[in-house]
Write a structure and sequence with these properties.
With 244 residues, this protein is of the alpha/beta class. Helix content is 43%, strand content 12%. It has helices at 24-36, 54-60, 64-68, 76-80, 103-111, 129-132, 152-169, 184-200, 210-222, 228-242; strands spanning 15-19, 42-45, 71-73, 85-90, 100-102, 116-120, 137-140. The chain has a seven-stranded parallel beta sheet with strand order 3-2-1-6-4-7-5.
Length: 244
């Protein structure tokens, strides 16, 4: 099976991340549509099945390589650690401050970047607000608001189709210049340091409000497309302020 991109060369396709997937049949169906559209890398966060479950391989219909090379992760943070641009997915908008972008509109940016991850939630519930807070933006799949239930493989197929068509239509890749985006691991480590300092300074004056306040703060930084230098500057700034 050839997973080369639409231009006939091995591509830097987005990493597909499934959080707590429940059914091996869905895992196999996801692998199949990934192969259809040249998506190469599958990561599973605490799945309820093994990638090579016979039910998964049967539904993959020949896309065994995607399942064979899939990796299993104990946490979403672990699955995102080496990625720089993280997108969540949702059929409905949540009550949180987060950029919601139509899938087609976002694909030009996604297609020219490397180290991109697209995160899909469990079949029944989708991603939690806490999980979405780790994403720079949410890819919104427009569906009938009166029936917004979308099968997991269908959702991946929509994303894969739009990415593949964007790849075909692009004459050349845009360049990011000299700026190096911060990895998700660097941003996560910065946020852990910030949370620790805020705890030490007793910033959360009403303790039961901390979860939503902290989620809002995380959203501020994950929306900013931080570079490595900007993360270093933020860490230095906070260190300077706390040493006063």
């Amino acid at each position: 099976m050839d997973l080369a991109g639409p231009l006939g060369v091995k591509n830097s396709s987005p990493v597909i991340i499934l959080v707590r997937p429940q059914l091996p049949e869905n895992g196999g169906s996801v692998a199949r549509v990934m192969a259809n559209f040249g998506l190469e890398t599958l990561r599973l966060v605490t799945p309820l099945f093994t990638p090579l479950d016979p039910k998964a391989t049967a539904m993959a219909a020949g896309a065994d390589r995607v399942l064979e090379e899939a990796t299993i992760h104990e946490s979403l943070d672990d699955a995102l650690a080496d990625l720089m641009y993280i997108y969540g997915t949702s059929a409905v908008e949540r009550h949180m401050v987060k950029r919601y972008e139509p899938v087609r509109k976002s694909m030009t940016d996604i297609a020219v970047c490397e180290h991109v991850g697209i995160v899909f939630g469990p079949e029944r519930t989708g991603l939690t607000n806490e999980e979405l807070s780790k994403c720079r933006a949410v890819l919104h799949v427009p569906v009938n608001p009166e029936f917004n239930s979308l099968n997991l493989a269908q959702a991946v197929a929509i994303i894969g189709y739009e990415w593949y068509q964007t790849q075909i239509s692009m004459v050349g890749k845009l360049r990011l210049g000299e700026t190096v985006p911060a990895s998700n691991k660097q941003i996560s480590e910065f946020l852990k340091s910030l949370e620790y300092i805020l705890d030490e300074k007793k910033f959360w004056r009403v303790s039961h409000k901390k979860p939503i306040m902290w989620r809002n703060l995380q959203n501020i930084f994950t929306r900013m497309d931080l570079t490595e230098q900007e993360v270093k500057t933020l860490r230095g700034m906070i260190k300077s302020l706390t040493s006063l």
